[in-house]
Every structure is written in C-alpha cells, then in structure tokens.
Amino acid sequence: MVELQFSSRAIPTLLILCFFLILGNFHNVEARNRYYKWEVKYEFRSPDCFKKLVITINAKTPGPTIQAEEGDTVIVQVNNTLLTENLSIHWHGIRQIGTPWFDGTEGVTQCPILPGDSFVYQFVVDRPGTYLYHAHYGMQREAGLYGLIRVAPRDPEPFTYDFDRSIILNDWYHQSTYEQASGLSSIPFQWVGEPQSLLIHGKGRFNCSNSPSLSTGVCDMSKCSPFIQTVIPGKTYRLRIGSLTALSALSFQIEGHNMTVIEADGHYVEPFVVKNLFIYSGETYSVLVKTDQDPSRNYWITSNVVSRNRTTPPGLAIFNYYPNHPKRSPPTVPPSPPAWDDVEPRLAQSLAIKARQGYIHKPPTTSDRVIVLLNTQNNISEYRRWSVNNVSFTLPHTPYLIALRENVSNAFDPTPPPDGYDFASYDIWSPPPNANATSSNGIYRLRFNTTVDVILQNANTMNTNNSETHPWHLHGHDFWVLGYGKGKFDVKNDTKKYNLENPIMKNTVPVHPFGWTALRFRSDNPGVWAFHCHIESHFYMGMGVVFEEGIERVGKLPSSIMGCGKTKGFHRP
C-alpha cells in the first residue's frame, strides 16, 4: 500500500480545492426554475389528412414537451387566445404538493381561464419520471391540447440506454368537441362513436377515398405523413410512451422488436418483456428497445384499438433504421394486433406490473376506510349518464377548493356520495335493474393522513352482455395497486389476495370488463382532488368523484384562480 504524504503548506491548498469541489457538487444539484410561455389558440390542421380546427400550443399539437429535473420549479404562462372558449390545463401525474390550486382542474381547483386572459401555473416536479399535461375544461383535450412532461432524476437510474425518445398515442375524431358534447347531452342520446383515426405522436393517415363525399380541400392525402422514429442500429433506446386517447384502449407494437417495460407512471417497474404494450388513457410507460434487427430496412410502429369492437384503422408510424430513407415503407404488412375482445392478455399485463426491487414503497398493511365505486350506465330524466354508486357526478359553478378554503356556503351539495352499493343483491352481469340514477356534486370528505382503499367495480352497461374498460385517474396522489380480479369483488376473500409486498404505485389504472381493481392511498396531500374515468365522454357524462382532505392545512389561495360562481368578487387581477 502506498502512503500519501503532504507538506503542511499543501494542506490549505487541498482544503480549498475540496471546498470548491463540494461547492460545485451542490451547484450541480441545485433546483432550477423552468419557464414556459404558451399561446393557446385554434388553428386549421390536418393531422390525419382531414382538415379541422384543432387547439395548438405555440402552433403545435402535441404541444411542447416540458423538460425539467427532479426538484425543479416549472412556471408556465398560459395565454388563452381561443377567443370564445374558457380553458384550464391539468398537469397529469404531478402531485402538486403545497400547490393544490395549480392542479388545473376547472370546477375543482380553479375557475377557468377566460378568453383573452393569461394565467401562470407554478409547481415543483418533485419526482422523476414520465408525465402528461392536457386540457381539463369540457372535452378540449381531444381537440389537440396535450403534451408530455419529462422529469430527469438527480440520482442514477437502475438501467442504461443510449438514447431517450418520446411518443404520445391518441385517437382522433373529425367531429368537433361541441358536436360531440351536444350529442351526448341530447334526447335521444347520440353516442360519439368510434374515432376515425389513431394518431402516433400527432400524426395519422385517414383514407380519404373511403369518404367520397368529402371535398379535396377537406381531406387531402398530401397534407399528412406518418410519424418517423429514426434509430441507429446496435443501440438501446428508452421510449417514453404516453396515451391521451379520448376513448380507446390501445395495443402498441414495434414490428420485430421486443420491449422491456421499466417505468410506469413515474415509478420503476420490475422489468418484463412484451411484444404488445397495452396502454390506457392517462397512463405512461418507459420501455427499452434494442435496435438489433436487420438494419437494411425499416419497421412498422402500430397502435390498435382493444376492448372495443375494432372499426378504427390502425395507427401507423415508421421505425426508421438509419441510414435508410425515413419515408421508405417497410417491406412487410403491419403486424397483426391482439384480438380486441380478449381480456386475458390485458389482465395478465396488469398483474405483471410490480415495483422494482430496491425501489419498493410498501403500503400500509391495513386501511382506515374502504370505498367501493360501482361503475354503471344510467338514465336521468331520459338523458344517458354514467354513474358511480348510482350517482352521476356534476361539477359546481364554484370550485370546491375555493368554496371549502374560503368557507363559501351553499356552493355544492353537502351530502356525500355513498361509500358502496348493494353488494349482496346487485347483479354486475346484467343491465341495471333500475335504469334511473340521481345527479349530485357532493364529495367524499377524507380524514387527513389516513389510509383509504378504493375498489373499482365494473358492471354491465345498459346494453346486454357489455362491460367497458375504464381507466381511472387520481389527481394529487399516487396509489398502490393492490390487485385485479374477475367478477364481483368479494370483501372477505379477495382482500386476502392483495399484493402488499411489491405493488406498483401509479396515478392511472384500468378496471377491466366485468372485473374489479383495488387501490390504496394516503390522504396526506391537503387539497381537493378529482378521481375520474379518463375517457373524455365518460367523465363528461358523470363518471367521477372528488376527494377532500386536510383543507384546513391549505395555504392562502391565489386570487388568480377565482372569479367564477360565488367567487366573482374574490378575483384581484
């Protein structure tokens, strides 16, 4: 062993050097402010060849990707130039710890941003991972206002890769959101139908010849092109994949390539390999893909509808092996998708998602409260609605956060929704025996810092032998996914099967047809938080609830979130 010796005169120099090295390390981990200035407006676009009005951010859809590091503060100035529409933007997956007023949920945490007004969102991204943002006013999300949030970690990750890329999946309607909302609110009921196209990172290709009634100016095949992901052979790519579909559950494939799932909703996953990645609206995943196939050709990237009778053509993009020409079509036909009505592989993927060893946050072993949410379709005064425990949710004119924090009386129904349904006699395999439901804007009041279980119970719609997939998203929290099951949840036996050892934490989770999903979370984030089906039309039709917790711990509300309902006199520009 070599013994190092230093003269007494060298020691002060070494101390100074160490000081600056330490100072430099502190500087490297110092949180930063990330500033964005967005102009939101309508523009004519042809993302799938069909020309229509879409909502853009700085002339883009999808909007700009927000990039930050763990602990940074994101500041977004939103200028609403939609002219005739209100606006709000939700930061999907960001827990808003200490800033519940910037969650971006109109009617829950803020008044909408009026046409011509500006609004500044400011929040800390406290955890690394892949997240989303999107409109949360009416059904604006499906008009094109959406994008990605990428938060880099301060510490090394438990996997390596050469390049980091992102893809957002979406479905696309040719009708405007106004036309869709009007149909959903009509007697007789007019369903939105299946989407015309599937978009991969904002691009698709609708076959205009299938609609000869469309004029050339409205549908022009020369006005669109597929998304191209260029890759270098022999490398490993991290693909961050997010879904913001309005309706569709999707299967995502890269022809000839396996995908290793490593992250879900910002949490590291015990790696597992898939050929088809099933992804539901509001979910994000990271997968590792090795570009180890024949480099002389390109490959298809596809998305396909699952869980609904597939009438929408597949979304197609090109996995371009450099230096092949990026527009060179693959020499093969796109790979066949899984059967749309086969639940088993989708349930198997859900069950396969576990927390990665070394990154497990174990849940509390018991809960303080259990809420069972039965998802059903119903009628209210002949209007078709979605309901939870026979109550269809409606938003109040005065946002809950303001009403509760400022003690505004008579702003919403003080009667909470029921914690369950008639477990013994309700038949989930048949249409509701009583088709009529009630509507309410009442909310669940949770005791602060307690453990809450939520059981999502799926059931038959008003159509015989039909149960739909519902992706549920919780604002302000991550939850542990304790289990999935088929049929009716059995409180005595199914609780014994809960995964309490390595459950994944997520913010969005599916409940499969005629099945149940069990979640657990801590009510430890003061505020008022929406929990709802992430299908646009379903939430619009009442499929959601709201949780309040620790409202007395919420800080002083900014006046910028006020100005609607009973808060009209509270707003100070």
Automatic annotation (TrEMBL):
Pfam families: Cu-oxidase (PF00394), Cu-oxidase_2 (PF07731), Cu-oxidase_3 (PF07732)
Keywords, comma-separated and alphabetical: Copper, Disulfide bond, Glycoprotein, Metal-binding, Oxidoreductase, Repeat, Secreted, Signal
EC number of this enzyme: 1.10.3.3
Residue ranges annotated for the Plastocyanin-like domain, each copy included: 40-154, 166-322, 430-550
PROSITE patterns from the UniProt entry: MULTICOPPER_OXIDASE1, MULTICOPPER_OXIDASE2
Signal peptide start and end residues: 1-31
InterPro entries noted in UniProt: Cu-oxidase-like_N, Cu-oxidase_2nd, Cu-oxidase_C, Cu-oxidase_fam, Cu_oxidase_CS, Cu_oxidase_Cu_BS, Cupredoxin, CuRO_3_AAO
Coiled-coil boundaries: none
Localization annotation: Secreted
Gene Ontology molecular functions: copper ion binding; L-ascorbate oxidase activity
Family: Belongs to the multicopper oxidase family.
NCBIfam families per record: ascorbase
Record's protein name: L-ascorbate oxidase
Organism: Sphenostylis stenocarpa
